[in-house]
Each structure stands twice: as C-alpha cells, then as structure tokens.
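Worked example 3. Consider a protein that binds cytidine-5'-monophosphate.
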Amino acid sequence: MSVVTIFAPAKLNLFLAVTGRRTDGFHDLISVVAPLDFGDTLRAEPAEGFSLACDDPDVPCDETNLVLRAAAVFALAAGAAAGTTNASDRSTAAKFFLEKRVPMGAGLGGGSSDAVAALRALNLLSGDRLGPAALAAAAAQLGSDCPLFLQDGPVVVRGRGERVEPLPAPVAGRLRGRRVLLFKPAFGISTPWAYARLAALAGGSAAGGVYLPPVEAEARLAAWLGEAGAPAETLLFNNMEPPAFAKFLALPTLLEELRARFGLAARMSGSGSACFALLGDDAPVGAITDAIRAAWGDSALVVAARLEWSRPG
Ligand code: C5P
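Given these inputs, the predicted complex is written out as structure tokens:
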C-alpha cells in the first residue's frame, strides 16, 4: 500500500452529562456522540520520517499537532507489538497532508479525529500491526475524545471518554441522515478552560446542579433509548453550557433567538464554541443562516451537514 486517505469526521455531542470530577483531575461524563459527514481529510504516504503539512496556515504542523503525536504513539506501540523498542521504525513512518475543515476550539473533536485518522492510516500502511485493543489504548492515550472515533458510528461514551459503546442499530437508525446546521463564532473555547470553569462553579456557592448525578444521567439516557421512535430533539442536553454561556454571552443569546424565531432544537457541542441546530426537512436554512450572521457577523462559520457514518446498520 503506497498512499492512504482517511476521512476524519467531526462529531456532535447530542447528549453530554458531566457527572463529576475525578481524583485524577479529569471529569467523568456520559455522552451520546454522533459523527458528521463534515470533517477533515488526512493523506499519508510512507516516508523516511514523520512530517505534516496542512492547507490551513493557522494549523501548527509541529509535534504539538495531534497527528504527529499520534504518529509517535503509534510508532512506540507498533515497535512494542513487534518486540522492538525502536520508535523510529521506518516501516511505520509517513508524510501526512491534512485538509483542515473542522475549526479548532469548537467542541467538534477535529483534532481528536485527525489523531485517530493518523493511527488508522499508519496501521493500514504497516499491514495492521496493531489490533483493536492496542489501537484503543493508543487512542485513549492521545485524548479523551479520541477513542470514540475508532467506532465509525454513534456511540455512548463513559468514564473520561475511554469507555465507548456503539448505539444499538435501531437507535442509530433514528439519528442517521439527520440534517444539522453547525455554527461557530470567530472565537474558540479551550477545553481545559471549559472544564476548569465547570469545576470552579461546582466548588462555589451555587454548587448544586452543576454536575448531573450519574444515576440521573443514566436514567435520562435509558428513557430516551427505550422510547421507540424518540427523536434526536428530545435527547439534546449539555451541562457544559452554563459556564461557557456565563462568559460568552453571544452563544445563549443566539440559541434563544433561534429557538424563539424558528422553533429549533439547538445546543452547544461539547465544550464549545460551536453550536448546532437539528433541521427538519422544511427548515428555512437561508433565514436561519441570515440570523446567525446578523448575530455573530460574517466571520462566523456556518455549515450544513448530516449525522452520517460508515458503520453498517
Ligand atoms: O483528554 P484531553 O486532552 O482532550 O483533555 C483536555 C483537558 O480537558 C484535560 O486536561 C482536562 O482538563 C479536561 N477534561 C476533563 N475531563 C474529561 C476530558 C477532558 O476534565 N473527561
């Protein structure tokens, strides 16, 4: 195999319940996450060492990029699997080119998805050196949002993100093909900042109600899963919204307007700053886009997409 091209989808958290802070500083969460037909594309070809180029000049292409961090993790894991500790094993080295479409600091999982695309690309180029368990371990090492991207379909995520379970096929079928409008203001939100704000709120005087207790989160999720035909609209939830909304007032202001004017089910995705609205077949996308641009200006990103994936069922 000489060149591989991997689609790295963005994701939406349709349901995101942060249930509490752990002793390791991370947070436990229960989330339903679905991939989109909108994403980045990563090309990889065998080379002497690892390198990365990108069509977006704002994307750092040094070793801070998750693609190259994934490559380093892969090389170590593949070396271990082959019984060597040679991290620069040539058979796993590659030159990457990233077509970047998913903005950074959006809560759309762009960097995490790129990292998993790099793991997949290197595994293909090396003739499947890593099995599913080793790939999952490598993904978990790279970031909390990485393991879910190994699934090629909608999932329930637990723990800090490493416990991933595919949604049952009939439930996934309720989501597949759903139209969504993504919109992101010019500013991004840093994930560590968002979790730190959440933890600060939980430690403050208004501590009650910041985290959703795990029993309640599981009950909400089970009720939605168990209700035949329940639409995506009734699943939407994100308790990372309050700390983000308290600082970035442009987010709740616009979401309220979209609910009031167009009756839309709309939320922030993950730790933000991207938001999304579920669209019915007759949704006035032009008027909704105009409202977003009127509120956030022309620098806002607005993308029409669908919940979509390659897993059968
Ligand atoms: O795992 P990742 O590198 O994406 O996490 C970035 C930061 O977000 C962590 O350092 C932590 O502060 C926060 N985080 C968290 N709980 C999670 C995921 C992320 O507190 N489940």
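Take a moment to read the result before moving on. The CA atoms of residues 56 and 100 lie 6 Å apart. The first helix runs from residue 66 to 81.
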